[in-house]
Amino acid sequence: MLPTSISSMKSLIFPPFSPLSLHFPKTKPFAFFSLPSKTPNVSYPKFLHVNPSMPSPRPPIFSIPIRQSHIETPQSSSLCGEVHVIVGPMFAGKTTTLLHRIQAESNNGRTVAVIKSNKDTRYGLDSIVTHDGMKLPCWALASLSSFRLKIGPDAYDQLDVIGIDEAQFFEDLYDFCCEAADHDGKTVIVAGLDGDYLRRSFGSVLNIIPLANSVTKLTAQCELCGKRAFFTLRKTDETETELIGGAEVYMPVCRQHYVDGQVVIGAARSVLESKKLQCGTCT
Ligand SMILES: Nc1ncnc2c1ncn2[C@@H]1O[C@H](COP(=O)(O)OP(=O)(O)O)[C@@H](O)[C@H]1O
Ligand SMILES: Cc1cn([C@H]2C[C@H](O)[C@@H](COP(=O)(O)O)O2)c(=O)[nH]c1=O
Ligand SMILES: [Zn+2]
């Protein structure tokens, strides 16, 4: 059989592929993207606040001093959308990293908005708060598909960057990231738990890895030995997958202490269960 030359191959793309087409701007004129801020050290994110039910404009409630050289703004000049994923156990700094990236994007003149799940009511619904108290205003939603309507289609069109925190709680994460990055040209920065307390894949976070431009796995510090922590140990005997909580329920642990911790918790659980069986008043 004769080898098929590239030019004789039937293209499935119409019009046929041209390298130039890769660089053609999609929808937005170049002027839409502002130049980097002239005051790189401290500034406030440019948030979109158009929801009439929310005070507008809401004051930025935090600002992280930023030295530009320390902040990675992943390839934000592309005219196509992007997806960046930040994962790791609890207390690894996922929310902190997300907030820094959002701040850096904002410093570059891009319009940003941040979404978190409304399941997490620990610090109220109007802001994202890190474990050490950094804050950023946000949209607390049940599903990502409601975002465009909530914010309003015009405001959505103006947005450059969308941050998503607690991504494990959004069932429609994959579809949203596809739509926002592939069709709407947004940069989507996603932070969430890759694994639950049993180290099972959590929600749809791992499903979006194939969509990602970059994936960052962060580590925390093992609460028991100080080594790097890759996992989250649940300290209580609740067994549901979703259980909102902080340091009172969870701790970051290394592999050794995860394994040891599971043995201890498993033993405690069986003692409790056998006590329940022996006790006439418990069912
Ligand atoms: N075991 C811990 N308990 C409470 N806070 C912690 C613990 N370990 C680290 N932290 C704090 O939490 C910060 C990270 O918070 P955050 O960005 O909200 O993490 P994540 O979103 O990954 O849970 C760390 O910089 C540190 O100050
Ligand atoms: C491990 C694990 C965690 N959760 C909950 C607990 C917290 O409310 C969030 C994680 O918050 P963080 O910003 O990453 O610290 O998720 C859960 O529901 N189930 C789990 O197994
Ligand atoms: Zn350890």
Could you walk me through the main structural features you see in this protein, from its secondary elements to its overall organization?
This protein has 283 residues and is of the alpha/beta class. It has a domain at 82-279: Rossmann fold, CATH 3.40.50. It has helices at 94-107, 147-151, 153-158, 173-183, 255-278; strands spanning 82-87, 112-117, 127-129, 135-137, 139-141, 161-164, 187-192, 214-217, 220-221, 228-229, 231-234, 250-253. The protein has a six-stranded parallel β-sheet. The protein starts with 81 loop residues before the first strand and ends in a 5-residue tail after the last helix. Mean pLDDT is 78; it is low at 1-44 and 47-77. The chain binds adenosine-5'-diphosphate, ligand LXEULUCI and zinc ion. Adenosine-5'-diphosphate (ADP) binds at residues 88, 90-96, 130-132, 220, 223, 247, 251-252.
In terms of per-residue confidence, which ranges show pLDDT below 50 for 5 or more consecutive residues?
1-44, 47-77
Q: How many DSSP H or I helices?
A: 5
Q: What CATH architecture of the domain at 82-279 would you give? A: 3-Layer(aba) Sandwich
* CATH superfamily (homologous) name of the domain at 82-279: P-loop containing nucleotide triphosphate hydrolases
Q: How many strands in all?
A: 12
Helix content class? 10-25%
What is the name of the CATH topology of the domain at 82-279? Rossmann fold
H/E series, N to C?
A: EHEEEEHHEHEEEEEEH
Radius of gyration: 23 Å
Strand percent estimate:
15-25%
Shape: elongated
Give a short account of the largest sheet: 6 strands, parallel
Would you tell me the structural class of the helices and strands?
Answer: alpha/beta
How far apart, in Å, are the first and last alpha carbons?
75 Å
- Supply the CATH class of the domain at 82-279: Alpha Beta
* Order of the strands making up the biggest sheet: 5-2-6-7-1-8
- Average of per-residue pLDDT values: 78
Enzyme class: transferase
Family: Belongs to the thymidine kinase family.
Protein name: Thymidine kinase
EC number: 2.7.1.21
